[in-house]
From TrEMBL:
<feature type="domain" description="C2H2-type">
    <location>
        <begin position="45"/>
        <end position="72"/>
    </location>
</feature>
<feature type="compositionally biased region" description="Acidic residues">
    <location>
        <begin position="1"/>
        <end position="11"/>
    </location>
</feature>
<dbReference type="GO" id="GO:0005694">
    <property type="term" value="C:chromosome"/>
</dbReference>
<keyword id="KW-0677">Repeat</keyword>
<dbReference type="GO" id="GO:0000981">
    <property type="term" value="F:DNA-binding transcription factor activity, RNA polymerase II-specific"/>
</dbReference>
<dbReference type="InterPro" id="IPR013087">
    <property type="entry name" value="Znf_C2H2_type"/>
</dbReference>
<protein>
    <recommendedName>
        <fullName>C2H2-type domain-containing protein</fullName>
    </recommendedName>
</protein>
<feature type="region of interest" description="Disordered">
    <location>
        <begin position="1"/>
        <end position="39"/>
    </location>
</feature>
<dbReference type="GO" id="GO:0008270">
    <property type="term" value="F:zinc ion binding"/>
</dbReference>
<dbReference type="InterPro" id="IPR008598">
    <property type="entry name" value="Di19_Zn-bd"/>
</dbReference>
<keyword id="KW-0479">Metal-binding</keyword>
<dbReference type="InterPro" id="IPR050717">
    <property type="entry name" value="C2H2-ZF_Transcription_Reg"/>
</dbReference>
<keyword id="KW-0863">Zinc-finger</keyword>
<dbReference type="GO" id="GO:0000977">
    <property type="term" value="F:RNA polymerase II transcription regulatory region sequence-specific DNA binding"/>
</dbReference>
<dbReference type="GO" id="GO:0045893">
    <property type="term" value="P:positive regulation of DNA-templated transcription"/>
</dbReference>
<keyword id="KW-0862">Zinc</keyword>
<dbReference type="InterPro" id="IPR036236">
    <property type="entry name" value="Znf_C2H2_sf"/>
</dbReference>
């Protein structure tokens, strides 16, 4: 369907809810390191895959699981694996009704 300006409606960029304020179109952001600049302090940890910066080593380590696919936390009841401890705890509570998990 044509809209004002002669463009097809399907070819228009999708805008985020904050796009008018920020001047950003959803899906077209660059992956530059400046985008991921730490808010406070100095970022000492950088992801070698996507150049995202982290202040804390623990948050950097957790982020790295997304790229490596590593899932070090395993459910003792069904052997399902998780990349994050909190996701395992939620699984144990919801699926197996086990509320206290010892690690």
């Amino acid at each position: 369907m044509k809209v004002a300006g002669g463009e097809d409606e399907d070819s228009l960029p999708i805008r985020s809810p904050h796009s008018s304020r920020l001047g950003v179109t959803a899906g077209t952001q660059s992956r530059s390191p400046q985008k991921y600049r730490a808010r406070r302090g100095t970022a000492n940890y950088t992801c070698p895959f996507c150049a995202k910066l982290f202040l804390d080593k623990s948050k950097w380590s957790r982020h790295m699981y997304a790229h490596t696919g590593e899932k070090p936390f395993m459910c003792s009841a069904c052997a399902r694996r998780f990349s994050r401890k909190d996701n395992l705890q939620t699984h144990m509570k919801d699926k197996h009704r086990i509320f206290k998990v010892k690690f």
